[in-house]
Amino acid sequence: MNNICQKTNFDLSGGEEKTVQVGGDSGEIKTLTYKNILFEGNVFKLGYCTNNNEGMNYPIFLVFSTGEEKEFQIGKTGMFEFQPEKWRDVNDDDTERTAEVYVTELKVFEDVPFVVDYCYSV
Asked: pTM (2 decimals)?
């Protein structure tokens, strides 16, 4: 069974300082406080959205089920998403495969309003 949940910037907790590049590759480097959302399970589908123009300049961080943490720049759409994707290599054996990632935590700059929708298995 899958659960569908929604969290916002009001659900953030904790805090740690991170040095990030604000505004993408040509932006300014700053040390900012990032807060987190610990998910109830391994998230396999996630959609993050900020409607704040300033919020689009701040990267988010995802912690994968392997413990690896990775930075993602949001860009001018203000959205970021992932979900399981089916694919096949037509140049090889044409077998259908599914690309999946699992996330346990989201870290966001504390002053960015956002909404995150996500799914996890129970």
From this structure: 0.89
